[in-house]
Structure formats: structure tokens, C-alpha cells
Design goal:
Layout lengths: L7 H14 L3 H11 L4 H8 L3 H22 L4
């Protein structure tokens, strides 16, 4: 028969994506651009905000994602 192996990395990746899904459209866009290796200046230009605003938002987003990811992780 088939048995499902418990892959903690895969579980964490799914939890992070679920947490990103909870973000506002703007925050989600910032995260996606960041993950595509754009720097804060480029992201700021694209979003119409300053690089400093991007940095502040990213810090808040990272904190929120950490909290949300914990929520989506199923206890082993």
C-alpha cells in the first residue's frame, strides 16, 4: 500500500505559502517581488513607495509570516 512520509520541509513550505495567502494584496506583491530577488529600491519604485517603506513593510511581513506559519504547521 501507499504510506505518506512526513516531510517537515514540505510542510513548512506549504505553511509559508498559506501564510502568504493571508497577506493583503500589497504585502503579497512585495513578498513576491522580494522572492524574485528585487531589492528594496526596485520594489519601492514598482510599488510607488520609498525603499525605507519597503524595508519597514518587509519587517512587519516577516513577523506576521512567522506567526502565521506557526498557525499552519500541524503538530508532529
Amino acid at each position: 500500500g501507499t504510506h505518506e512520509t512526513h516531510d517537515p520541509i514540505e510542510e513548512q513550505v506549504k505553511a509559508v505559502y498559506a501564510a502568504i495567502g493571508d497577506l493583503s494584496k500589497i504585502d503579497k506583491a512585495i513578498v513576491m517581488l522580494y522572492l524574485e530577488d528585487y531589492n528594496y529600491n526596485d520594489i519601492g519604485d514598482m510599488m510607488g513607495i520609498t525603499a525605507n517603506d519597503v524595508a519597514v513593510k518587509m519587517n512587519r511581513i516577516k513577523t506576521r509570516l512567522k506567526e502565521s506559519t506557526q498557525k499552519y504547521m500541524t503538530p508532529a
